[in-house]
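Protein Entry — a single chain follows
Next Lines — sequence and tokenised fold
***
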Amino acid sequence: MPAPSSDLAHRLIEASELRGEFVLSSGKRSTVYFDKFLFLTRPDLLGELAHEVAGLLPERVDHLSAPEGAATLLVAAVSLETGLPVSVVRKEPKAYGTMSQVEGYAPEGARTCLIEDVSTTGHQVRRAAEVLTGSGVTVERIVLAIDRGGADHLREAGYDVEAVVVLRPDEPSGRR
């Protein structure tokens, strides 16, 4: 699959890049923050992004997954693009009902692509991958909408990773 248009990358960054003082989910501090809700809630960007993510799926996947949170918007859009069923990985097992940590369609033996919105450290998506693996699902690939360095850590852990947009925290994004 060819790289996404630089136009899409520019529009995702333009829509979501904030400057200031921010604490990331990892606890690290950053002067740049990508508010994923600013592109995941725009139908034009979400639809185009879902199309790009769908193009990065390995042929062997029969299922899509996302960590609990904003990535569920993206995985739902990719599901509509591909017709593949979805599961969502909770941070903790649900304390009622099924008491499951993996919600939705995730049968043992499924081959999934785990989809994440923005990843700086890869920790959250790696935890989700470990939960899926522990429940008998094979994580064939992880696809990141915006990779801010998380892909490097995920690859070090042995995962196949692709990203629609790659930005490194120490590189300028082109927006001042």
About this structure: The chain has a mean pLDDT of 90.
